[in-house]
Amino acid sequence: MATGGGQQERPTRPSSFSRVSSSSFSPASSSSTSTSLPPGVRIGANGAAFVSSGIPDLDRILGGGFLVGSVVMVMEDADAPHHLLLLRNFMSQGIVHGQSVLFAGPTKEPRSFLGTLPSPVVQKEGLKIKHDVSDVQDKEKGLRIAWQYKKYFGEQTAVDSHNRDKKQEFSSDFDLRKPLERQLLNSQNVECISTQDAFDLSKLQNHCLTFVSKLSMKDGINSNAGRIAIQSLCAPQCGYFEKDWDMLSFIRSLRATVQSSNAVAVITFPASVLSNSISKRWQHLADTLLSIRAIPDKDLAKLLTGYQDMLGFLHVHKVAQFNSQVPVILDASTYSLKLQKRKSLVLERLNQAPVEGSSGVSYATSGSCSSSKGSLLDF
Amino acid sequence: MAEGLIVRSLRDGSLPGEHAPALCLEDSLTPPLASHSHAVFRHLLTSLLSTGTGTAVVLVAFHRSPSFYLSLLSPTFHNSIRLLDCYSDPLAWKSNHHPPPSSHSPQNITLLTNLNHLPHFLSSILHLAKDFGAQGHDRVTVAIDSVTHMLRHAPLPSVLQLLTNLRCHEKISSLFWLIHTDLHEPKVISSFEYISTMIASLQPIVQLPDYANANISASITSLEENYSKAKFNVRLKRRNGRVKLLCEELLIEQGSVKFSSVPSVSSVVAQNLIPKVQFNIQLSDKERMDRANVVLPFEHQGNGQNIEIYDGRRSLSESQKDPSSIKIGGLSEQKRSNNNKSEKGEIHYIRDSDDEQPDSDEDPDDDLDI
User: Where does the record place the region Disordered (chain A) (predicted)?
Assistant: First the structure.
């Protein structure tokens, strides 16, 4: 019947993965439903589904990864291209897991960006076994620690041991020096669009709609997750740059599309080229908001340890929450981006360099929580 | 140094696979910087051409007539420069009424009248660049006298697209332009900064005084300095993603420009940029080993003997050999020898166990058995 058919096709809300887990009611026994989860997605706290961002440290900071059905925005720094590192890891992770990826960039040949995607580091067997043994010990400790001390052990106690076997597969370490294999890139799941010559965003909007509808066309539970990556959405050389309100309504419609599907959208934008009020509106539309900042060449060397290896700062402004009224409060919101052994991206907390006895300068600046020039760091 | 870095980077051009470096020279109306920025522009032009390394320049002249630029350069360099004349007839008024005489303009000046149509503009620049290729110059730099004039005729995104296309083109090795910051909204200026790799701006050496409080007569005479000097600030975006901020002093003498360096003020920058940091109280492995190797004062006697606990009954002469024990118990030693009593004073020092983390005890008095 027509009505029955119509009801079947109504998209599940807010994300089909979470409905699957909430029906079984107990997170400990989610092992029965975890086999039906597509690769690359896992259930985290509050029954929410996460996909990995491609950077294990970032997944840990955000409490599991990027929430399925959310829009992640990254504010670029006009001086440094580090947002591309985040985008590359995000897209590689999706391709490695076999998820569909849609990429839009402000260049004439966005396909060439795919050539810079990193390939995953091959895990050695010994490491994997060691990881399992330590998991068992942690679990025993977890039984004895009282509830209020659980936060010191992170989210290991929240994830049950069955899923820990899959933890290694959820997020991989990427070697930024090795490009991803060609045959993975040429699959049908990866699409690229150029936004440079477009005079309005309708073409991009249609692409996103068809992409997301393709995801949900497969049968209910086993549908794959999808990733939408848009680079420099408000880049000034794009034809639609002066149409502020058009760009905002595009983001709003993208947000609505993604929320009722199994996709995650990551949008990077240079906030400095937008006027203040419009930039604030963009930031409010994000579910998770990160920003990248470039660092000056030698000035901060006396104040921070490990300065030579740092590429830039990553600041977490907002973290998406689902099924919960409790906001995420991070103990540190600024992290430094580093390349470990020049190949994989790690995020570390900032440590102050040892204070020399002679100069009292660094001591003074560390004590006060100084705010930077007009940016959104707040403490 | 800043000026040298800029000229070198413009001369070297781009590495293969990279976009061409682009310098955005910002001009403002604060008197008399407006003329200084143009002087810097001219200086860059002449220094790029005069080194004789095969750099050729395509100059897009909006602000002054082409003959002005040609008069700046000695005739030997006239072959290395091609001018796109957008000054004489930008709105095509003359050519509509009187068709331009064909043999009038000298060889290296091309008149352009149709400024609205940017693809045509781009192709004329590229055409001139290719002309150079025939002469054997493989590195062509494009200089635009001012982008502000371009923005009069075409919308912002298309001007930026043109500049980006120039940067991507293989014939163009570097690019620089002048922009008047007072005539545009801040977001226009930041869009130009976004697509450029170097940003240079001028600031007055002496700030305008606060007329309410300051001693006016003294400060006005010092304002004279502004006419001959200025601060040249450069922000370089480096390949490794870091930003280099440089500051130099500019001296203007009779139309020519000299740069001298000034000690850089970096502490101000640092204070603005430092986010919340924590102290790293974890020890690295090397630090842990070093700590285990340290012998504390109570444990040694300072001359390589075995570790002994200080004994209050030692004689004065022995204690004089050991600088550490003098430091610790010297005074009490003297008192004791005077008293001639054999008091047994011993110090038993037991190091804390390394396994104990600092501040791990909730209550340090827990181990008292009372």
Answer: 1-39, 357-379
Q: Give the Cα separation of B228 and B18 in Å (integer).
A: 38
Q: Among candidates A114, A111, A82, A104, which has minimal Cα distance to A270? A: A82
Strands (DSSP E) contained in B28-68 are: 55-61
| Contacts (Cβ under 8 Å, ≥6 apart) of A132 | A164, A165
Q: Do the Cβ atoms of A350 and B277 come within 8 Å? A: yes
d(CA A294, CA B238): 10
Residue B279 touches partner A, C-beta closer than 8 Å: yes
Residue A191 to residue A211: CA distance in whole angstroms: 9
Give the sign of the dihedral formed by CA B57, CA B61, CA B66, CA B68: negative
CA distance A355 to chain B (A): 10
Provide the 10 A C-beta neighbour count for residue A221: 14
Are A237 and B193 in contact (CB < 8 Å)?
no
Q: Report the DSSP beta bridge partners of residue B81.
A: B57
- Judged by CB atoms closer than 8 Å, whether chains meet at A237 and B161 is answered as yes
More confident residue, B179 or B352: B179
* B266–A299 CB contact, under 8 Å: yes
Please check whether residue A294 is in contact with residue B241, taking contact to mean a CB–CB distance below 8 angstroms: yes
Peptide bond into B32 cis (omega under 30): yes
| Out of A46-55, A138-147, B345-354, least confident range | A138-147
Could you report the per-residue pLDDT of A352-368, keeping only the tens digit for each?
Answer: 766 665 544 433 333 33
Could you say which of A196, A297, A361 has the minimum Cβ distance to residue B244? Answer: A297
The three-point CA angle B158-B161-B165 to 5° equals: 140
Q: Which residues contact B279 (CB under 8 A, 6 or more apart)?
A: A351, A352
Q: How far is B90 from chain A (nearest CA, A)?
A: 24
**Strand extents, DSSP E, A187-333:** 190-194, 226-230, 263-270, 288-294, 310-318
Contact between A275 and B235 using a beta-carbon 8 Å cutoff: no
**Dist. CA B331–CA B325, nearest whole Å:** 10
**End-to-end C-alpha distance for chain B, whole angstroms:** 72
The pLDDT score that the predictor gives to residue B37 is: 82
- Written as six digits, the tokens of B103 are 């043999």
**What is the torsion angle, in degrees rounded to the nearest 10, for the CA atoms of residue A302, residue A308, residue A311 and residue A316?**
-40
Residue B80: φ, ψ to 5°: -90, 5
Beta strands, E only, A138-273: 174-179, 190-194, 226-230, 263-270
CB A259 within 8 A of CB A212: no
Structure letter (DSSP) for residue B283 = P
CA distance B31 to B28: 8
How far lies A148's CA from each of A74, A152, A332, B360, in Å? 33, 9, 20, 17
Q: How many beta-carbon pairs below 8 A join chains A and B?
A: 129
Q: Which amino acid is at A182?
A: R
CA A288, distance to chain mean position in Å, is: 8
Q: Taking CB atoms and an 8 Å limit, are A296 and B191 in contact across chains?
A: no
Chain B touched by A314 (CB under 8 Å):
no
Length of chain B measured in residues: 370
SS3 category, B95: helix
ipTM above 0.85, yes or no: no
Residue of chain A nearest B191, judged by CA positions:
A273
Copy the structure tokens of residue B212.
């309410």
Instruction: Determine the pLDDT at residue A368.
Output: 35
